[in-house]
Every structure is written in C-alpha cells, then in structure tokens.
Design goal:
The chain has 111 residues and is mainly alpha-helical. It contains 4 helices and no strands. 84% of the residues lie in helices and 0% in strands. The protein is flat, with a radius of gyration of 15 Å.
C-alpha cells in the first residue's frame, strides 16, 4: 500500500507541475511580466508540487518516484505542447522522446 501511495503522490506532483508549466507558458506567450497573476499561479503550483513530492519520497525510493514523475510529465508536456500551443514534433524530437521513454523504462526495472 505504501508503494501505491508513493506512486499516487508522484503522479499528483506531475499533475500540479504540469498545471504550473501551463500557466507559465500562457504568461510567457502573452508577454506577461514576472509579477502577473499567471506567473504567480505557476509559482504557487510549484510550491504545492514540492509538498506532494515530499510525500511521494516518504513512501517510495527517489528512483521510483523520479521514473513515475518523468514518464508522466514527458508524455503530458508533449501532448500539451502539440495540442494547445501548436508545437510540431519532427523526427528528431520523436526519436528523442522514444530514447527518453526507453531510458525511463530501464530505470524503472532497476528501481
């Protein structure tokens, strides 16, 4: 059960960070200043994610938490970038994503 709690908190960390990343990207694209409400929202979400991360690594190893977090954020950021911000993935980016996923899968087996 501890392992499940750890993975749940790692996943929650990723979701909160993704929300913060989304807010910061919107602020950057709209030319907001560093003190705008979108930037402050992103900063606040990062602070919440630190607490989620703390609870994650209390329940599982840093390696296990890192692999779960990395896989979720990598895939979600690619989806957000391509879907909402119109970013285009070329063969080089797709190969890089594939290599990153393969590395994370290998790390998960060791962790």
């Amino acid at each position: 059960m501890t392992y499940i709690f750890g993975l749940a908190f790692a996943s929650l960390t990723a979701i909160v960070v993704l929300a913060g990343d989304f807010a910061l990207k919107l602020a950057a694209d709209r030319g907001h200043t560093g003190m705008s409400s979108l930037v402050m929202t992103g900063v606040a979400l990062y602070a919440v994610s630190a607490l989620c991360w703390f609870w994650s690594v209390r329940h599982i190893s840093l390696t296990q938490a890192g692999v779960a977090y990395s896989m979720l954020t990598l895939l979600a950021l690619v989806l957000i970038g391509t879907r909402w911000f119109g970013e285009v993935l070329g063969p080089r980016e797709l190969a890089g994503i594939g290599c990153a996923l393969a590395a994370m899968i290998l790390l998960a087996k060791v962790g």
